[in-house]
Design brief:
With 136 residues, the chain is mainly alpha-helical. It has six helices and no strands.
């Protein structure tokens, strides 16, 4: 009988831990999604957002609401990265006239370790602020 209670307690504690990790991962992914979206907006000259609104896609609006003030940070980071995307370096036979891999550059940014680190640091800061507000 004692073992059953211990088993139930272990399952409860494990599920709480798994839930916290899921919330953390979801928040980090929302941050990265929004940064990538803003990178794509920047490379399209802000033509992407009206297109998504026309298709009634509110995906990134929801991300922005969940992130709160951190949406501004993701916005700035995504747009800053987009401005630094360089023209493709190819051999002279295949000159692409200074063209850039803009959207693929944003995808590379999304998958980068640097954006992972930035998103994780933003999450830590978000959690610290949340703890400070709840302790007041």
């Amino acid at each position: 009988m004692k073992n059953k209670y211990l088993l139930v307690l272990c399952m409860f504690l494990t599920s709480c831990s798994v839930q916290k990790k899921r919330v953390k991962n979801d928040w980090i992914n929302l941050f990265k999604d929004y940064a990538m979206y803003k990178c794509a907006c920047e490379v399209t000259g802000d033509k992407l957002e009206p297109l998504l609104w026309a298709k009634k896609d509110i995906s990134f609006t929801v991300n922005r609401e969940v992130l709160g003030n951190y949406g501004d940070k993701a916005d700035s980071i995504g747009r800053f990265y987009a401005r630094g995307i360089q023209p493709i370096a190819v051999d002279p036979e295949h000159d692409l006239y200074g063209m850039k891999r803009m959207f693929v550059g944003c995808l590379d940014f999304y998958k980068s370790d640097s954006l992972d680190k930035i998103a994780k640091a933003a999450y830590r800061q978000y959690r610290a602020e949340k703890k400070t507000k709840s302790s007041k």
